[in-house]
Amino acid sequence: MIAPVAARRRRTDQVMRAVLLGGTLVALVPLVFVVYYLFKQGIGAISWDFFTTDPTGRFLGPPGGVKSAIVGTIMIVGLAALIAIPLGIGVALYLVEYGKQNVFSNVVRYFVDVMTGVPSIVFGLFIYIVLVLTGIGGNFAGWKGSIALALLMLPVVTRSAEVVLGLVPNSLREAALALGAPRWKVVFRIVLPTALPGLITGSMLAVARGAGETAPLLFTAFAVNATTWNLGEQMNSLPIQIFNDVRQPQANIVERAWGSALTLVAMILILTLIARLIQRRSRFA
Amino acid sequence: MSPASSGSGRQHFQEELRELEAQALGGIDLVVRTLDRTLEALEHQDIELASIVVHDDDRIDGRYLEVQQGILSLLALQAPVASDLRVVAALLHVIKHVERMGDQCVNIAKMLPVVGFEPPSDEVMLEHIFRMGRLARSEVEQSKQAFMLRDVAVAEDLVRQDLEINRLNRSVFARAVEIGTDEDRREWAMSMMLVARAIERIGDNAVDIGEQVAFVVTGEFREFSDASRVSL
Amino acid sequence: MSTEPTERAAQAPAEAVPAVTPRTAGAKAPAEIVSPGRTVTLDGLKAFYGSSEAVRGISLTYAANEVTAMIGPSGCGKSTVVRCINRMHEEIPGAHAEGSVLLDDADVYAADVDVVAVRRQIGMVFQKPNPFPTMSIFDNVAAGLRLSGRRGDVKDRVEQSLRGAGLWEEVKDRLSQPGIGLSGGQQQRLCIARTIAVEPEVIIMDEPASALDPISTLKIEELVEQLKTRYTIIIVTHNMQQAARVADKTAFMLSGELVEFAETEKIFTNPDDSRTEDYVTGKFG
Fold first, then answer.
1. Which member of B4, B201, B229 has the closest CB to residue C282?
2. In this model, does residue C8 exceed pLDDT 50?
3. Which residue from B106, B100, B99 is spatially nearest to B194, judged by alpha carbons?
4. Are strands C106-107 and C95-103 parallel, antiparallel or unpaired?
5. Which stretches of A118-190 are DSSP H helices?
6. Could you give the CA distance from residue C182 to residue C190 in angstroms, rounded to a whole number?
7. Could you give the strand order of the β-sheet that contains C52-62, starting from the edge strand earlier in sequence?
8. Domain range for A116
9. Which among A101, A186, A194 is the nearest to C133, CB-wise?
10. How many distinct structural domains can be found in chain C?
11. Chain B within 8 Å of C33 (Cβ-Cβ)?
12. B with A: 3 or more CB pairs under 8 Å?
């Protein structure tokens, strides 16, 4: 005869369950609200023109779309990712594969942690002072914004990559070493492919973070209305566009801001989906 | 396959091994008792005692089967190695010798109805036989001691007593040959010779047990034989 | 023994029957050597983890085309010793080894020796099967070849190795499926195939069957019997029945020292050292 659950314990189980469920719902509520609101406010602005015309910048008359902002975001964040992701993974590789125990690695790790906490505006200011004011390569420029964003994204990539690379079982490295592989091959042919899914996820998180930052771009890429594909010039971007539009009195321009926000979220969502698909496809070479 | 581990598993095994050894050596005790009875029956021509001996041999046979089963179980379940393995192997031999000794006692006891009602024809022969009996008993007890103590010297000493038994056996044989032509006497003498031979075999079995002692201790098996042995 | 008195007397003049060492019946029949392996000789090998000495000067010869087992309680240093043979020990941060390990006449620890080349000649199979998770069965076996930079006919080699590991029949129809989809015993044989694909001369097995079920264990043991015709095999095991079944010679280690090294049969029927006796009979360990 097995003793049945005591009534008191059952009650405690139920109470705990209810509490945790309640907490989850509470946490979900703002998320749902945000998404709903975003959709509700922004869907009105979405149209073909929205994606294909530049903002006119005119006070009166048709406000135009946000093509230049979309292009700008893609270009600037793209370049930033190109810089930050390989660099971040590289740093993580060093920390995990070569420098597990020495003092230098610990110092690096500490600074990476510090960098994750630095406010984004500081990066923008830094690049402003170092690159913009000094006039290197022109005044405001898209690529300078990329660098600022890259600085922002780097610690995120490094931290998550380090965790993921650390999760690769040591037995795999041992197996590869025992087969007579030089260390670099072990890293590039075994460790990286095995950690790939996690690395992609971490990179996507970094990209999402970077794509949404306004402050760094304020001082570096600045803002223009016309679409430009040249990173050497000033460029528009969605966060900047939203920032500007929200402060305007015209209702349709404010609506455009909502549409931009919705677009930004959608872009990141699509990017993440693509990354997941690639990752699933490449799981078994 | 479970690795050999200290703790309860192996302790259990050690206990079982000790029990098994106690059982097998207990068989030697049974033989000593049986031998005592046999010799007593012989001395007093007690037919009843003799038949008890014959029936009680079932006990010894039963002990043989018990020990054998225990050995099989230990080998199958515990996979003993090194000295444990040698002990188990030795116990198998020991209990076999125990069983044989029991059978020899039965052989002696079965002679009694044949010779029981006759007056002894040759006192000397009888005296030899009783001496052989005492020596055999002492050998059997000593073999048990040797095994219990794992003492090779004590085991080797068995040879000395066994030589004496052999000598007496030859003597009995010689006397039987010269007993004369009287049919009754001849019959008696031949029966007595068989008795002597059975006792001599008991002694040999005890020496064999001694050889097992040496095997357990040294890991080598060799036949005990005395280099300074006097040949016939 | 139990004979007529006269017969016994007739035997008297003979000398004492010479002592017979129990049983040469179980000695392993010398296998037909397909390809000569190399002899591995340890000379005063010491191994350290930081400043703590785990292996205290061991000298030992592993004969070619034989299986030698290393037994001993946990922590006695047997795994450390074999890892020194293929120089995997030094991959652990802070670990180093002294002394020499000779592959026939060449010292593996000589100053100008390429560690990677050593590991191609001395292969290793680990306790827990570790096939590369991102690779198919075929790629796993080929991994050894590709990682060590060997060109040549990969396909044939893969088939040969899988046959050599006794796995070909079971997987020949699904070579492109992921390696981790196999059962534990098959995975371990896959790892063995991967190891022999590189054509080493010595194979070290560190408790190869301890994570496997009894049937897989037996298959691996059969495999070892066949493998020894081509390679020299060193197998670390804490399963003494396995050592008894598989090894020609056995070495017993305790607290970093070599206590006894002899024919397996001697170790298990009549060892010289009382410590060996105590260990194999299970009085400690």
1. B4
2. no
3. B106
4. antiparallel
5. 120-127, 142-167, 170-178, 183-185
6. 9
7. C52-62, C40-49, C95-103, C106-107
8. 51-281
9. A194
10. 1
11. no
12. no
Please tell me whether residues A145 and A79 are part of one structural domain.
yes
Dihedral sign of CA atoms B135, B141, B147, B152 in order: negative
Instruction: Tell me the mean pLDDT in the region A112-130.
Output: 89
Assess if residue C8 is contained within a domain: no
- Does residue C274 belong to the interface with chain B, where contact is any CB pair within 8 Å? no
Identify residue B173 by its one-letter amino acid code: F
pLDDT of residue B180: 80
Residues of B in contact with C20 (CB under 8 A): 220-222
Among A159, A158, A197, A207, smallest CA distance to A283 is for: A197
Question: What digits encode the pLDDT tens for the residues C74-98?
Answer: 889 999 999 999 999 998 888 999 9
Does C282 score more than 90 pLDDT? no
pLDDT at residue C31, rounded to an integer:
59
Asked if residue C125 lies in contact with residue C190, where contact means CB atoms within 8 angstroms, the answer is no
What are the structural domains, with CATH classification, of chain B? Answer: 8-218 (1.20.58.220)
Note down the domain range covering C45.
33-280
Whether residue A239 lies inside any domain: the answer is: yes
Say what the pLDDT of residue C15 is. 46
Task: Work out the pLDDT band at A8, boundaries 50, 70, 90.
Answer: confident
Amino acid at A68: S
Asked whether B129 and B172 are in contact (CB, 8 A), the reply is yes
pLDDT of residue B38: 95
Q: What are the tens digits of pLDDT across the range A46-103? A: 888 788 888 877 777 777 788 888 888 888 999 999 999 999 999 999 999 887 778 8
Per residue in C52-70, pLDDT (tens digit) is 999 999 999 999 999 999 9
- Say what the pTM is: 0.78
